[in-house]
C-alpha cells in the first residue's frame, strides 16, 4: 500500500492529489480503515500493528504535503513567468496633447509678473455696464463705447470688451497697495484675419503711493524683455487716449518689419495700451486719488504670441486643428 501510494502521490497533479488524500486519509480512506480495524484486535496484536499503521499514516501525510508544496511552487513559478513585466522596455507611447500657445503665453506672463510680486486675478466674461464702462470713466454715449464693438446681452449686461473691469473689481475689494495681472478672454463684434470676436488680453494694475510713469515704463520694459527673451528690448510709449488713464500711451516694441525679428531693426509695433490710472477711476472705486497713484496696461495676448512664435494668422488659434496644435503647441 505504501509503495503504491507514494508512487501515485509523487506524480499526481493538484486535483489528483486531493483525490488521493480523500481515498487514503478521508473518512473511509484505506489508511483510516486500517486504523479503525485496530479496534477489533486484541491488545497484543493492536500494539504490534498500531505502530506500523501510524507510521504509514505519517509517511503518506508527509508525502502529500511535500507534493502539494512542489505543485504550489511550480504553479507560482508558471504564473510569475506568464505575468512577467519587462521593466527595461520603453513605455508604450500615450497620446499626449499639447499646451495651446495662448495658454503657454499666460503661463510665461504669470511667471514673469509673479517674480515681480504681482498676483493673478480673473473676472467673469459677462460683465455689468458699470464695471466694463462707467466705473472706467466711460459714461453712456461716450464714443469709446461705440469704438469697442460691444456685444450687448439682454438685461443690459455685456460680454466684457477688455480685461479692465477686473481693475474695478479688484480696487473695490481690496485696499492698496495693489499689484495684479489679469489674463483673460475678451469679446468684440469684429471678425477678419486680424480680429476675432473672442480674443485674449492681459491687464496689469499697480496702485500704491508715489507711483509714476517711470514705474510704468520700467515695468513694461522688464516684462517685454523677459517675455521676448531680448535684453533691453526697445519699448516706446506713444501718447494716445483712453478714458480710464491720464496720460494714456500706446505701447510699441522695436522690431524689424521685414524679417519679423523682435528688438532688431528700426520699426515699431503696437502691442497694447497703458497709462496712469485716471483719478476719476480711483474715486469711482473708493480709492483716494490724492493719496494713491497707479498705472495700468492692457496687452493683446494673441498679438504677442504671434510675434514671439511667428504665427501669421490669428484665426488658427481657435480652429483646434490638431496638426497646428502639434506644431505650435508646447509639450506639457
Ligand atoms: N483696456 C484697453 C483696451 O482694451 C487697454 C488698456 C488697459 C489701456 C489699461 C490702458 C490701460 O484697449
TrEMBL record:
Catalysed reaction equations from the record: tRNA(Phe) + L-phenylalanine + ATP = L-phenylalanyl-tRNA(Phe) + AMP + diphosphate + H(+)
Cellular component per GO, a single term: cytoplasm
EC number: 6.1.1.20
Superkingdom, natural source: Bacteria
Cofactor(s) this protein requires: Mg(2+)
GO process terms (BP): phenylalanyl-tRNA aminoacylation
GO molecular-function term, one example from the UniProt record: tRNA binding
Record bears the keyword Chloroplast: no
Residues passing through the membrane, by range: none
PROSITE patterns for the chain: AA_TRNA_LIGASE_II
Residue intervals of the Aminoacyl-transfer RNA synthetases class-II family profile domain: 112-332
Family listed: Belongs to the class-II aminoacyl-tRNA synthetase family. Phe-tRNA synthetase alpha subunit type 1 subfamily.
Protein name: Phenylalanine--tRNA ligase alpha subunit
Species: Acidocella aromatica
Gene encoding the protein: pheS
